[in-house]
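Problem 12. The chain below contains 338 residues. Write out its predicted structure in token notation.
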Amino acid sequence: MDARTGRGTPVVASIVGLAVALSGCTGSPGAASATAPGRTAQSAQVTAPVPAPERQATSAATGAEPGTTAAATETAHRTPVPSEALPDPDAAIPRDPARLARSLTETSERLRRAVDEWRSEGDPSRGQAPEPVVLLALYQQRAYRLLARDPRLASRTYARLPRALEPSVKADVTAIRKLLTLVHPVSRPARFRVKEPKPADVLLGHFRHAERRFGVEWEVLAAVMLVETKFGRVRSPSHTGAQGPMQFMPRTWEAYGMGGDVHDTRDAVLGAANYLHASGAPRHYRRALYAYNHSWAYVDAVLLHARQMKRDIRKYYAYYNWQVFVVTTRGERRLTGP
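Solution.
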């Protein structure tokens, strides 16, 4: 963030899984005169958008150290997954529009059922998601990332999707594509610290608590954390110093963190809600999110994901299982997940 103007520049540096963590808040036009959170673009797509004013490339955007990745570069040369089997973490994504549409339709339906089962028979407040949810969500994420990078394939695939599914697929692909425009592939990898996120319903409880306190919709807060750190999976600070699951710059945290710990998930969510509220939310979400990260592509992506969760809470549980990717000049690498 520019100390002279209090405003920042887009920080989508690591939309790594979205990117690895978009570093974030920057001074906002209408908010208190403190530095915005200043996070780094590290979205869970590892697309690495460009960092906001105060942060610049986030750790994810910098590239992953070969030895730290959990999966090899994405490939599309293997045999597609059988209809009844759970997809392998690196299963090939069909490049034929008709086959890809069928695969996405099947995967989306199976993922919805898997999430319903997890919520009704499992316990999202403890531990991580069951294998079917993890693998189906990863396959869906990888397919969306492919479509985001190939607009022609995307348009031909949309035309073959069921009418009820097309808007959802298009929204997610569009959000990822916007974040990817902010990413700069890195040639020299850096080490990233990643870890398992807090349980899904523990995070949901924090988002809803912050909504009650500051009036900022929980879906918007969840979408910000999704883009910033893939729900806390990315633990590395940005190279500009942005920290925590919501990626705050120290000065901004001092102003909006209410005395909490920037690395504590509950405190970070409350701080983000406080900052967004001071910047215009819930009345002016676009203005508030732009203050958080000076990029309209970032704003659009966050709101697209938030609307998806608002329409169907199962989308939250699917997004929760999206993994961290990093974009390098040699291709994408997945840093988390199976």
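Discussion. The chain has twelve helices and two strands. Students who got a different answer should revisit the alignment rule from Section 12.3.
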